[in-house]
Amino acid sequence: MDGRSYGSQYDTRLGTKEIAELIRRQVRLEARAGLLPEGKWSVTLARFSGGSSITIRFEPLAERAFDFARAFYNHERVVQEAERPHDYSRIPLRSPFGASLEARLERMLAEHNHDGSDAATDYFDVKFYAHVRIGGPDLVDLVGYYRAGRLVDEGLDEINARWARMYADWLHTPEPEPAPEVVVVRHLRLVAPAPAEPAPRPRARARRQPVAVPVVEPAVEPPNPAWARLALAHALGLDFTIPGLKEKV
Description:
alpha+beta; two-stranded antiparallel ribbon
C-alpha cells in the first residue's frame, strides 16, 4: 500500500499541463454559469526543479472589490484586529462565504491530485503543488476602513444578493466521492539465476616444431691411444693385448 489519497478525477495519464487546462475550463464554465463570483479568473502553471504547481487566481471587479472583501473576510475578526490588535484571536479569518469559496477552489485542484505527504516529518508527496490566490482589499485594508468609520456590519444578503444565492448553491452541492483507494501490492518471486556462460578457454599455445640446426661439436679425444685401440678392437670384435698389461683383453 502506497499510503496516498487520490482525487476523484485523478488520471495517471495526464500531465500537469493537461490538468491545468482542465481546471481552467472548469473555472471558466462555473464563472459563466454563476457558480463563482464575477471577476478576473486565471489558472497558471509553473515548473521548477522540485516539480510543478498550479495556481488559481481571482481578482474581483474594481467596482465590487470593497464589497467582495467585506463578504470574504469575517467582520468580527476585523473588529477585533482594529480594537485589540495585540490580542490572540480564535475568530476565523474568513467568513463562511470566503471559507466555502476557497474550499471549492482547493477541491478543484485536489480532484486531479494525489497526496501522500507527512506533515510530522515535513515530507511532501504530491503530483503538483496547489495554490489559491484571492486578490482585492485584504484584512489590513478592512481594518483601516473600520477605524475610519467606513465599514458597516451587513449580512451577505445585504452586501450582494447574488453571492448569497451562490453560497446557498454551494451548500447544496454534494461533495464528490473520493476515488477508490489504490493499493499497490508488491510480490517477491524467486527466480533461478541465469546459467553462467562458460569461461572462454585460453588459446593453446602453438607447439613449436623442432628445427634442425647444424651444430659443429669438437671431436672428443680419447684419454690415451691405448683406450682408443681398445674401443676400436671392441667394436671390431678383435682380441689384442695392451702393452703393460699381462692379461689378455
